[in-house]
Specification:
This is 3-dehydroquinate synthase. This protein is of the alpha/beta class and 354 residues long.
Length: 354
């Protein structure tokens, strides 16, 4: 089915059960795909272009060095400006492929076929492409929207349970941004991820991205859970998956919102959040390791001292509210310290009860 998106939206969005080759580019195209999906792709009767790249890109290789050989390969083919690149894989691969497409010949068209729940729920839509630097996540990138997004739920059947749970957190994030308590509670219960949840999350994000394509205002709300989450992810040495880190960041954001005088979340929802996150407690880094990483956040605001040095004074933080849309507030990085402490305490208490 094709999802309804705002008029003039840059990306066509399709949510299907099985891959459909009629949705591939009509003209010249090539493929960058996760090598683990090659068999599933061909078994589904999908064509493989002559110069396809089947690659393995672990999280630690989300770097510029990874895309250089792809660009050289496209130049040798050669790939022309009217060709389309198809990205088949999870969020790391699709982010890098979109970045490579934005760089090659100053920008060629691309399609994204996300194969992880995390990518379907978040990374694949919105036109953000990126690579990591030693200083932090996604510090290099470009806005380069794909022409088409095709999410096929059949690809999710081979995912390990941990990776399905990883993607569920981005769906829960959407519910908390919207203030949809009932939807958040439903997704926090045990049970499989529902097709309708992905559809709703994609439709919501498409609307936000259309209204704010360059992330200058409303789109920043999509960073709920990411400010503390990115710091926790990096401080864990990336033992935490991205979605797991966002889940921890969501609980921390609930605590920070309360400390900032916003309405408290019901204990029942906080308990459900903590229960799904308890097993991650050993990977939550101490505050001293998180603070320097928070100061590197892309949303940080710096101020110059008299000696010419600059320091981070504030970060644009997203705070959830039960029953109402989330809000943004500029807060110093240190504002997260007590929320971090409460996060650790809550996870340990829940672990003892379990």
């Amino acid at each position: 089915m094709r999802l309804a998106t705002p008029s003039g939206f840059a990306t066509e969005v399709f949510l299907l059960e099985k891959p459909d080759q009629t949705l591939l580019p009509e003209g010249a195209w090539t493929l960058v795909g996760d090598e683990r999906l090659r068999e599933a792709w061909t078994r589904a009767g999908m064509p493989e272009p002559e110069h396809a790249l089947w690659v393995s890109v672990p999280e630690e290789e989300k770097r510029l060095r990874t895309v250089i050989p792809w660009l050289e390969h496209w130049a040798r083919v050669p790939l022309h400006r009217d060709a389309t690149v198809v990205a088949l894989g999870g969020g790391v691969l699709t982010d890098l492929t979109g970045l490579a497409a934005s760089l090659f010949l100053r920008g060629v068209a691309w399609q994204v076929w996300p194969t992880s729940l995390l990518a379907m729920a978040d990374a694949a839509l919105g036109g953000k492409t990126g690579a990591d630097l030693a200083a932090g996540k996604n510090l290099v990138g470009a806005f380069h929207p794909p022409r088409r997004l095709v999410a096929c739920t059949d690809f999710l059947t081979s995912l390990p349970e941990r990776h399905l749970e990883n993607g569920r957190w981005e769906l829960i994030k959407t519910a908390l941004i919207m203030g949809e308590m009932g939807w958040a509670m439903e997704m926090l219960q045990e049970g499989p991820v529902k097709f309708a949840w992905v559809e709703r999350a994609l439709a919501f994000k498409a609307g936000v991205v259309h209204r704010d394509p360059r992330e200058s205002g409303e789109r920043r709300l999509l960073n709920l859970g990411h400010t503390l989450g990115h710091a926790l992810e990096a401080a864990s040495g990336y033992q935490l998956l991205h979605g797991e880190s966002v889940g921890l960041g969501l609980l921390g954001s609930c605590f920070l919102a309360e400390e900032q005088g916003l309405k408290s979340y019901p204990a029942g929802l906080l308990d459900l959040l903590a229960r799904r996150l308890t097993h991650l407690a050993p990977l939550v880094a101490p505050w001293a390791d998180c603070l320097p990483l928070l100061a590197r956040d892309k949303k940080a605001v710096r101020a110059a001292h008299a000696d010419g040095e600059t320091a981070v004074t504030q970060i644009q933080c997203v705070l959830p509210r039960p029953g109402e849309p989330a809000v943004q507030r500029a807060l110093p990085p240190q504002a997260w310290e007590s929320a971090h402490a409460r996060l650790l305490s809550t996870l340990h208490q829940e672990g003892v009860r379990a």
